[in-house]
Specification:
The chain is α/β, with parallel strands linked by helices. The protein has a domain at 5-198: TIM Barrel. It is 33% helix and 16% strand. The protein contains ten helices and nine strands. The protein has helices at 35-48, 65-77, 95-108, 128-140, 160-171, 188-193, 247-252, 260-267, 270-273, 289-297; strands at residues 5-9, 53-57, 82-87, 112-116, 144-151, 179-183, 222-225, 230-234, 237-241. Strands 6-5-4-3-2-1-7-8-9 form a nine-stranded mixed β-sheet. Strand 4, helix 4 (128-140) and strand 5 (144-151) form a beta-alpha-beta unit. Helix 1 runs parallel beside helix 2. The protein is globular. 42% of the residues are buried. It binds iron/sulfur cluster (2 copies).
Length: 303
């Protein structure tokens, strides 16, 4: 595997419970990655690859600021060029505390940050919090600070969520930072709460690759490690578990043909997985290939 990017789901816990959350994070989430494990993963990944970027997200990583900062320091010591975090900005509630935290994050090596702002976060996180967080980060000298914006359709769409998001971005214009837009996928709570907004797509054909960062199963360049130790190349698609096999070996021994689930997904796509499950299947139940893929894999034992 020619690994270029490493991601950690630091925690499944979040102060928020957004209706679109694809990770299904909430205040009830109780999994957190241990610092010792995180340090080992970074060391092992760097030993077998030339990592260009490292990201921590969640849940909300800044519910554990000391842990997050300690892990960033390790990534900096290992000379990973891009050190990134995705946060909802809740830690900007108190301006002075936010300024102190932003300085610590800068010193720890953080150079890229996405702050989530959209219609889905607003009911849980007042706009002042991410605004204060962004301003503190800019003042601390973090190189790349962007709004991370989830859209149902597009920024010009007429639905009530994208409409509200457009209004929020107007209000945030004085902060003068760019926005990075991602289209919400039919995964997790988004599927339960926003189903009517997803246009049904063809279920036929091989897996075309994960759309957010463009990972492809034949040669994934990015992996995400969960607090449980699961090492994933796509939504809930594990290629091993660090509690059973060292991460360095999981990375260096990866070969898509040896993983029965991934072989089927590459050659036949999610419809190919259907042959291996004993489950009533109605095509109309599924929005797209990824929805079908994730649902079938819940019942699939070949991996
Ligand atoms: S803030 Fe992010 S992680 Fe938390 S519930 Fe909302 S989308 Fe999920
Ligand atoms: S969810 Fe399945 S079909 Fe979709 S990109 Fe991931 S592996 Fe491919």
């Amino acid at each position: 595997m020619n690994l270029k990017r490493l991601e950690f789901t630091l925690t499944t816990k979040c102060n928020s419970q957004c209706i679109h959350c694809q990770a299904c994070a909430s205040p009830l989430g109780n999994e957190v990655m241990q610092v010792k494990d995180a340090h080992n993963y970074l060391t092992e990944a760097v030993a077998v690859s030339r990592l260009k970027s490292f990201m921590i997200f969640g849940g909300e990583p800044m519910l554990y600021p000391d842990r997050t900062i300690t892990i960033f320091k390790k990534a900096k010591a290992l000379k990973i060029p891009e050190i990134e975090m995705l946060t909802n900005g809740v830690w900007g509630k108190d301006k002075q505390k936010a300024e102190k935290l932003a300085k610590k994050l800068k010193e720890a090596g953080l150079n890229t940050i996405g702050i989530s702002v959209d219609a889905f976060h607003l009911p849980h996180i007042p706009l002042d919090y991410p605004r204060n967080a962004a301003q503190a980060l800019l003042e601390a000298g973090i190189e790349k600070v962007t709004w991370n914006v989830a859209l149902v359709e597009s920024l010009n769409a007429a639905n009530k969520y994208d409409d509200e998001t457009r209004r929020l971005l107007e209000m945030l214009k004085p902060v003068r930072i760019a926005a990075h837009f991602t289209k919400i996928m039919p995964v997790g709570r988004a599927l339960q709460n926003l189903r009517q907004y997803f246009t049904p797509m063809s279920l036929e054909g091989p897996c075309g690759g994960e759309s957010v960062i463009g990972n492809v199963l034949k040669n994934p360049e990015s992996i995400c490690i969960e607090p449980s130790g699961e090492v994933e190349v796509c939504w809930h698609l594990a290629i091993g578990n660090t509690k059973k096999k060292p991460l360095g070996r999981i990375i260096s021994e990866y070969e898509w043909r040896r993983n029965p689930t991934i072989k089927i997904l590459v050659e036949k796509g999610p419809m190919g997985l259907l042959e291996s499950v004993d489950k009533q299947f109605r095509k109309t139940q599924y929005v797209d290939k990824c929805h079908l893929c994730i649902e079938i894999r819940k019942n699939f034992s070949a991996s």
